[in-house]
Amino acid sequence: MSVTDGRQAFPAPAKLNLDLRITGRREDGYHNIESIFCLIDLQDTVYLKPRDDGKIILHNPVDGMPQEADLSYRAASLLQKYARTPAGVEIWLDKKIPTGAGLGGGSSDAATVLLVLNRWWQCSRTTQQLIDLGAALGADVPFFIFGKNAFASGIGEKLIGMDIPKQWYVIVKPPVHVSTAKIFTHEGLTRNSASSIMPTFQNLQPFRNDMQAVVFKEYPEVWKAYSELSRYGFALMTGSGACVFTACRDRDSAYNIYRQVSCLYEVYLVEGLAIHPLLPG
Predict the structure, then answer these.
(1) Which of 37, 129, 151, 203 has its CA at 20 to 30 Å from residue 142's CA atom?
(2) What is the pLDDT of residues 87-120, one digit of tens each?
(3) Is 140 a catalytic residue?
């Protein structure tokens, strides 16, 4: 974690949903899901600089949105009431994870803010307490606080560690931004998948994504990218899209696919991670 002009740099890794099923709609409007979450080594960098005047400043909100709407700012603001020190912070986001892609970049940034400031501000929140705070920000935030590959249920806040074989992934980002809200409210969305009895990496195969069919219908660009990647192996969409991916056992196999599709799309060649880089190994 480097230091630049008083700023310290912290990693915020992306994720893939290797499997995603929607098991029902809740009374509060959210959906119950079951999913395999996998960390990958595509990362944003969150730069933080402490302040002692109570101000929270986000210097470069994503897509020009007001800083108060950004998940990173909201994470710091949510945690601030637990601080035992003069609590303020300046935040810069160096984005490498594409937005609207189903890779959890904004959620990961927010989780990194919570993990670091919990220590800096001496908030003494336990991991579970941070997960509960994170769930108020977004369904993917708890996973990044949990920090290990996991089977998730509920809205994503109920997490059980899961062993995932070491894999490399080729991720294709089609030229479109998918609206998660649009997909979750779509009348054609599958919402009645059966709950898993003994969820393991093997037992849940063949993997699927219950959002995929609706996204393909509403965003033909995602379907085209999926069709192209499917020429080289089993492909799947992550989260609510737009990214699609395929898994490989070794880097050479992944690189061969990457080389074929990189002339057509924005493509990432990444390795799976077993644990969040902010957590002890």
Answers:
(1) 203
(2) 999 999 999 999 989 999 999 999 999 999 999 9
(3) yes
